[in-house]
DNA sequence: AAGCTCACCAACCGCGGTTTC
DNA sequence: GGAAACCGCGGTTGGTGAGCT
């Protein structure tokens, strides 16, 4: 027996969402919170499939989303993470504050892939014997390093519980040299935004997202803790920028941070102290530090990025 | 000005994992 | 334990606008 369609396709509207539909959806979510998407079309009268409602909310209407205007640092971060994780866009997006997986995926497909390709071709032209097969060469010449890399890779799943370090290795949005293009440029979006601002500040945090403050990953207290409730109960004006962005992100983000992926990238960060965790401060993981340092290295590294394998090699300490 | 091509991105589709009954 | 429902994810498509001829 096959899977039934998620909705009655005949009575379902497709195509771009209208501002009116957005308002209906935002109003509903504002009242009932995100989730139980099946009930959304029935309760709102929207002629949309539940899936479409969820997607619209997740990728577009959810508060705290930034769209477009990817910085160079974000570019490099995406490139490195893609080299490490492959096309696991949700995992990659979890490292980019306020970016959606769909946005990251689209950006990769339309910009970064071509950029990398161009760079590789440029390298090919520049050097008659391109540095192909570096990974294999390393493996052949240094079996110990290879073993270590393999061990590290295989130890991912055995990582300790509670390592849900929702690391945001990218800088705070305000730290960027050029202010990224903000979301809700359209009038309808601005309306949605205005409607949500008040709600998001008061909404209970459903998940945990972190933000980088002064080089330290700050994780808001879990929603179930008194701290979170207290934070959520405060007015938005009382929240710090970090708190605000974190709580806004977490309030509606139904997707838990991909723990396994962060464990993957944090395989060497077991040395952070319990007290630091209790205080909500977790040192940057080795990989995050690498990413940040690397990003700080500027264009020099980017130019070297040619073979994506280099990034993976770098991550394994080659 | 009109037609064409291309790039971009919002949205759809289908699959797999998880939860519920 | 198994079926159904639900949800999340990644791949792909199609509409739209910008740029070019």
TrEMBL record:
A molecular function GO annotation: DNA-binding transcription factor activity
Record protein name field: Myb-related protein 306
An example Gene Ontology biological process: regulation of lignin biosynthetic process
Sorted UniProt keywords: DNA-binding, Nucleus, Repeat, Transcription, Transcription regulation
Main location: nucleus
Gene name as annotated: MYB306_1
Organism: Zea mays
Listed SMART domains: SANT
Biased composition annotated in UniProt, kind: Low complexity: 228-243
Compartments where located: Nucleus
